[in-house]
Amino acid sequence: MHLTKTQRIIGLSLIGAAIILFFVFRPTPLPVDVAVATLGPLQETLEGEGVTRVNDRFVIAAPVSGKLVRVRFEEGATLRKGEVVAELLPPQLDGREEQEAVARAASSRAALDAAIARQRRTTLTLAQAERRSARYRNLFSEGAISKETFELSENEAKTMQREGDAARSEVDAARYSFEALQAIIDRQLSSKPVQLFSPVEGRVLRIHEKSERMVAAGAPLLDIGDPASIEIVIDVLSSDAIRIHAANKVKILDWGGKGELLGVVQRIEPAAFTKLSALGIEEKRVNIIVVLQNREPLLGDNFRVQASIVLREANRVLRVPVSALFRGKKEWHLFAIEGGRAIEKAVTIGMRGTYDAEVVAGLRPGERVVVHPSNELRDGMAVKVAD
Q: To the nearest 10°, the Cα dihedral for 177, 183, 184, 186?
C-alpha cells in the first residue's frame, strides 16, 4: 500500500508531536545532594556543658563568734602555708562560754586525731595501689593482662596519690583549727585577736567577708585553693551516665582559648540530682568528673566549658553522613544512587557520631548516598546531583 504525500506528512507530524509531548511531560529528575560512603575513623561522643573547679578547696571559717578585722588580701592573692589570712576579736568569755570553748577545742582535737587516722589509712592504701600498678605494669609488658586493666591500675594509683595529698592537707587544716581554738582559751581574758592561718600554699579564690563586722561562729570568710589543680564537672542525663566509664577520653571545647584540651573521665558520681531544663522540665542528672592531661593556666575556678566525651571509637569503619539516614518501620534506611535513580536500602548502623554514622551492613564502600532526602523522593525515582 502506497501512502500519499499528504499521508506521509501527517504521519511524520504525529510522530514529531508524540516525541515533543514525551519530552515535555517526562518527569524531571529530582536534584539531590550526595555523599560517598567511605572508610575511616569514627568516634561516638556525648556532648555536655561543664564548669571547672579547684580540686582541693579549703574554706576558712570563723572558729568563734567575734569581730572580724578587715581582710587585707585581694582575690587572686598568693598565700604561703601557715600565713595569717584573717583575725577575729572574740568577745570576753564568761564561765559557761569558757566551758563551751573547752568542749569545742576537745572536738577539734578529736577531728585532728580522725584526720591523722584517715591519713595513715590513705597512706597504706596508696602503697598497695602503687604495688598493684607496678605488678600490672610487668604483667602488661608480658601480655598477661589487657591495656585497659593496666591503665585502670595506673589511674587508681594516681587517684590514691591525690587522696593522700588531700589527707595530708586535711590533717594540716584540722591542726590549725585545733590550735586556733586552743588559743581562744588561752586568751579568754586577753584582747588579742584570734589568728586564722592558711592550711596550704595557694591563692585566694573568694573572699566572703572583707569588711570589718561581727560574724558568727562557722561563717565562711575565705576560700583558698591551688588553681593549678583544676577538675571539670560535667552534668549529663542519668540515662547517658550509664554509658560513660572511667578513663574515657574527653575533649574540652569552647573554653575561651585556642584549640581543644584533652582529659579523661576520673569518676562518675554515684548519686543523681534534680535539675530544671531550659524548658522547665525536671531532669535527673549525674556529675561526671574529668581531669585534664595537661595543666591549662588560663583556666580558673568556676569557668564554663563545652565538653565532648568519647564513648566509643574505631580507626576504620564504613561511614555515611547522619543526614543521609532516616527511620523506617523497624530499621534505618537510606537512598543509594544507582544508574541515575535513587534506590531505597535498609541498613544496619553501629556507632553514631556527631556528623557521621557507622554502617555495619547494607552498603558497600564507594557507593553514593543522598543526604537530606526530601519528602518528594521515592524509591526508583530518577535523580540528578545538584550543583
A: 150
